[in-house]
Specification:
Blueprint lengths: L1 E7 L6 H9 L6 E7 L6 H11 L3 E5 L5 H11 L4 E4 L5 E2 L3 H9 L11 E9 L5 E3 L8 E4 L1 H9 L10 E4 H4 L11 H9 L7 E12 L12 H21 L4 H16 L12 H12 L1 H6 L5 H12 L1 H15 L2
Parallel strand pairs: 1-2, 1-4, 2-3, 6-10
Antiparallel strand pairs: 4-9, 5-10, 6-7, 6-9, 8-10
Helix pairs in contact: 7-8, 8-9, 9-10, 9-12, 12-13
Length: 330
């Protein structure tokens, strides 16, 4: 059986679509665990309606603690041999879990088989318009080595989302999502790396739809906590590469710099002040990495130039970038 965990927080507008896509799976031997994380809208009522309609639905309510807290609660309650996750405003293709299960279950009797399988996702705007296609749709199934998968993550070519994956329950129950943190999926994957020695199954099929709502917390307006946690994770990935994959140290150095570059291009100019400790630390870090910026073979030309200019005049470059973005979006 597969346990599908859906954290729910004020998702009344989208929740029905999400739940219907899970209950409509061609792989029917599943339980749907809905964890209401203190919603203030009608999300809980919607969950109860589905409990009455389908015996596979289990519903829990808890005080607000964030998506990671809700996921951790769901993991503890899960009864399936496999565990997957879906966000309450997203939806999935009807054969997603059958596809993931069929590949992962091939290794059920292997002593050191892979613990997870993943497929592709695509992104949708608030009007459901497709804004980013799946990275791969060739149908090819590959058992990706752990070191290759880690390299993909730090080169921004891999997928760190837990929602596109299916895990063996005995594996994922050993872990928990970091609560009170953002960019938590990436953080947990890096923590899992030592035990992903058998690699991860990747399937070149689209199965997961990411919905970018207008009010999306991590996909819209500036959120310094998000950038703080992203940089914390970038430094953690660098340390992991240094200790376990020294051959990828240039890739990991690039990862830190690109994350810092992204932050400096999005922080509002009015927050670029000396009393913003995080901003000042990132500026000092970038300036200290000038030699790496010049020689790193994985930085794109525009990233290399942008980082050099940001070392000279952070506010000036950020203001120019903001003006260019406004002109571009007209």
């Amino acid at each position: 059986m597969i346990s599908v965990i859906v954290p729910v927080y004020n998702k009344e507008e989208y929740l029905g679509r999400c739940i219907d896509s899970v209950l409509g799976q061609t792989y029917a031997d599943l339980e749907l665990i809905l964890v209401d994380d203190g919603s203030k809208d009608k999300s809980a009522d919607i969950c109860r309606e589905y409990v009455n309609k389908d015996k596979r639905v289990r519903f829990f309510q808890k005080e607000n603690g964030g998506a990671s807290s809700a996921r951790n609660f769901g993991i503890k309650e899960a009864k399936g041999e496999y565990i997957g996750f879906v966000d309450g405003d997203d939806w999935i293709e009807e054969d997603m879990y059958e596809t993931l299960f069929s590949e992962l279950d091939k290794y059920k009797d292997a002593k050191n088989g892979p613990c997870a399988a993943q497929l592709m996702s695509e992104d949708h705007a608030p009007d459901l318009r497709l804004i980013k296609e799946a990275d791969r749709s060739d149908g090819r199934v590959e058992l990706k080595k752990r070191d290759d998968y880690f390299r993909e993550l730090i080169m921004h070519t891999g997928d760190s989302s837990f929602c596109t994956k299916l895990f063996r329950a005995d594996f994922i129950k050993k872990y928990s999502f970091p609560e009170g943190k953002k960019n938590e999926d990436f953080a947990l994957l890096v923590e899992m790396m030592p035990e992903l020695e058998a690699g991860i199954i990747t399937i070149g099929r689209m199965g997961y739809h990411i919905y970018h709502s207008e009010e999306s917390a991590t996909r819209g307006s500036y959120d310094q906590k998000l950038y703080e946690d992203m940089m914390y994770n970038a430094f953690g990935a660098y340390r992991y590469a240094r200790d376990h994959y020294p051959e990828y140290i240039s890739e990991a150095a690039r990862f830190r710099l690109v994350q810092a570059y992204d932050f400096l291009l999005h922080i509002p100019v009015e927050k670029m002040t000396k009393d913003n400790g995080f901003y000042m630390r990132i500026v000092r870090f970038v300036k200290s990495e000038m030699r790496e910026i010049k020689k790193n073979p994985y930085l794109k030309k525009k990233e290399r130039l942008g980082l050099k200019l940001l070392c000279i005049s952070p506010k000036g470059i950020r203001s120019a970038h903001r003006t260019w973005m406004k002109v571009r979006d007209r």
